[in-house]
Amino acid sequence: MKYIKAILFILSFTIAFAFFSCEKGTEPDQLKPGRRDYTWTVDTIKTFNTPLMKMWGSSPTDIWAVGSGSSSDQTIWRYDGTEWKTDNISRAINPWCIHGFAENDVWIGGEDGEIWHYDGSDWSESLSYSKQLKYHYYNIYFMDIWGEKPNDIYAVGFADSSNVGLGDVRFGIMLHYDGNDWGRVNIEFIDNAFMKIRKGINDNNYFIWSYISSQTYSDSAKYYKFDGKNLHEIYYSNSGSNNWHDITVIKEEVIFTIGDGIYTYSKNKFNLIVENPYTTNYESVYGRNKKDIIWMMADGLTHYNGTNFEYILNFERKSLSDGFVFENEVFFVASDFYNNDANNIIYHGVLNKEN
Question: The whole model's pTM is what?
Answer without folding.
Answer: 0.88
